[in-house]
Specification:
Layout lengths: L1 H28 L4 H79 L5 E9 L7 E4 L12 E3 L4 E8 L4 E5 L6 E6 L5 E5 L2 H4 L3 E8 L9 E4 L11 E9 L6 E8 L8 E5 L2
Antiparallel strand pairs: 1-2, 1-12, 2-5, 3-4, 3-12, 4-5, 6-7, 6-9, 7-8, 8-11, 9-10, 10-11
Length: about 270
């Protein structure tokens, strides 16, 4: 039965198709029949035309949507690239601004220390592990730099020149265990010595040794160079006392000092020639 209906439907469609072709041909050959025949043809073909037109429109819209999606994706990627470039430029701008501020502060320090001959230098390399201990600067013997000259910044004492070349020098910081500095507590006038400590150095602290039992120092007191000896001029800030460690059995007390200089961010220094 189903085969019968299928074959019958095929015959009907074929007849309709042939009829439409014939009607169209007659309409074209005999203009006077144009309007009635055209109406018949339109009536028969318009549903079929709508089906194909709708399908074509759907396909067109589909590909148009893909094209628009690609266009939006490209615009998004371009905007994202521009944003990254702007962020990079902003970071470079901040970096240059910070460096300019550091250099200006160093120049101001040179004017302030006009009683001394000084040389400004940039740090060119640091040990990735022992960054707090020593580092290399881009000035050396050709610039008048020699071993045992003090090194400072606008924040305070950095260390001492420990090795030189013609165009470079090594600076051993006050965090180095081989460096000791005569110091004084600015509030009380109590004298002592600061020394580097490998453990404390990692948190930018050093030891303060040989503190008199009678000293009236306290946490938060500022510590400066005492000026005793031939290396460090008087009055250069070393840092502030973090904690006092009384030694009940010994002759002296000890303390820890937080350095005024941030060695992790150090880029430029001033060497005191004389």
């Amino acid at each position: 039965m189903s085969k019968f209906f299928k074959s019958k439907l095929f015959i009907i469609l074929a007849v309709i198709t042939v009829l439409c072709i014939v009607l169209g041909a007659v309409s074209a050959a005999v203009p006077s029949f144009g309007n009635p025949l055209r109406n018949v043809v339109n009536t028969v073909l318009s549903p079929i035309e709508r089906i194909f037109t709708g399908a074509a429109g759907g396909v067109s819209g589909f590909f148009s949507g893909i094209a628009e999606s690609r266009e939006y994706k490209q615009k998004y990627e371009n905007a994202e690239t521009e944003l990254r470039e702007l962020q990079k430029d902003e970071r470079e701008k901040d970096k240059l601004q910070n460096e300019n501020e550091s250099l200006r502060a160093l120049l101001d320090l040179q004017k302030e220390k006009s009683e001394h001959t000084t040389v400004a230098a940039a740090i060119t390399s640091k040990d990735p592990v022992y960054w707090y201990s020593d580092f290399i600067i881009n000035k050396g013997e050709n610039d008048g730099i020699a071993v045992n000259q003090a090194v400072i910044t606008e924040d305070g004492l950095v260390g001492v020149i420990s090795e030189t070349g013609a165009t470079w020098s090594r600076v051993s910081s006050i965090l180095d265990s081989a460096v000791s500095v005569g110091c004084v507590a600015t509030r009380s006038g109590d004298m002592a010595i600061t020394e580097g400590d490998a453990t404390l150095a990692q948190i930018s602290e050093c030891r303060m040794d040989y503190i008199s039992k009678d000293a009236s120092i306290a946490a938060g007191d500022s510590i400066e160079t005492s000026g005793y000896g031939s290396i460090y001029p008087e009055g250069i800030l070393i840092g502030k006392i973090e904690q006092i460690n009384p030694d009940l059995q010994g002759l002296y007390n000890r303390a820890t000092v937080k350095t005024a200089v941030d060695f992790a961010k150090l880029k430029y220094v001033l060497v005191i020639i004389k």
